[in-house]
Amino acid sequence: MPAFHKNPIMPLLALSMLLSLVIGQPAPEPAQATSNAACRFGITSVHGTDGYDIASIGVGSYLDWVPTSNSNLPAGMEYVRTLRVRNDLYANTLANLNSWVSSHTGSVWLVGNEPDTTYGGQDALIPEVYAERFYALASQIRSLDPTAKIGFGTIVQPTPIRMRYLDRAWARLDDADLAGTQAAASALIDIWSIHSFILNEEPYPEWGTGIPPGFESDYLDAIVITNFAETYSIAKFQQRITAFRTWMAGKGERDKPLWITEYGSLFPPIDPPGINYENVSDQDTTNYMLATFNYLLGAADPTTGMTSDGNRLVQRWFWYSLNDHRYTFGGSLFDPDNGKSLTPVVGAAFKAYQNFTYAQPDLFPTSVFTYPVNFAAGGTLVNYRLNITIGNEISADTGSTATVNIYVGGTQIAGPISNPNVQRCGGRTMISVAWQNVTPLQDYTIHVEVTPIGVLDSNPGNNQADFEVYTELPELFFLPLVTK
Length: 484
Fold this sequence. Notes:
484 residues, alpha/beta, TIM Barrel, eight-stranded parallel barrel, four-stranded antiparallel β-sheet
């Protein structure tokens, strides 16, 4: 959840000033869809998913700051887990880590949640202690599950003082009694995870996110916001992402993914009963949200972006939030106080933006493996099993299925096979077919065609592929001759 202390007295005094400062911007048009654009979108949730139509908004990932699963997620939506490292929670994390990791192999684990802030019940650690706890947890995860992905950082916003917080954490992680070298430290980090709110950094009790622990006497570079319209400034958002990617490149971390695991426009559009908060309209929040989407989908830099991702600056981003109370924070897509319905401005705009990719999968054959089963009748031909994997790179309607046809030398050997739904956002499904009476010890070309049912494919050019296979002989087992 966001670290955002609100002082109810200060907003009341500043309300008349804000009326002349908050200026709306024209709503931008959706950007050109990339092949996996919808899978880059994630959502955070304060109140779970029960009763919310989360499938309709077309996101690839979900995060709710706990390490356990959410059974209500649509098929194929990735659940991102968070390990809390706050002083009163760390012992429980250590005690349960083995069982959590063993039960959820292959997961993404974010270590810590806003360790750089004391507001809002966040993890609130000096950077050296955060590094020590990260090292302990990340090392244990690596030993238990080499397929796991580990996220480091999760600062509340990429500002100069908070990047200095990470400088100190990174230096401690390199120390001889922890990772020991920069290379060893880097090997523990699969994902750089940050939040990207735009908040005040004055000391408590001022509003915003306060001064990072360990910097109480060293905060000359802290950000002070007096114009509340800056909290949804696309220019500031862009500048901070660019600065953080430059910081990553300086640490030798350019070719790691950068995830914004929480961000949004936090001032609420309405007040709770009896309290006068600063307000930002739903339309201003929507304009900001769509502007960030357009930026994130295309932002790239040939010197700091992730090389393997077309030099893009950010690989995934999580909007705040699915369903917070509208009188608490802005940006909710669904209203928990109005029948869990889609909010008519922010939620409707989010859903409309996603529709350009949501209903179209990108199905394609990814691999074919051939396994000899036994010799056919007569002993010269062999029966084989073909295991064919079908992939889907974008956020498809989860109700879609596909048919698969398999050919060898122009002759159809199987199909059309109705295939169970291929999960979205990098999902894979394997089908298995019999290939009988085959001459062994030869090279063959297996041609596979896959076609979605009920929806158009976003990239029909990769719906078929050829795979070269060699037909091995089955293993023969001889029982010993036993005589009396």
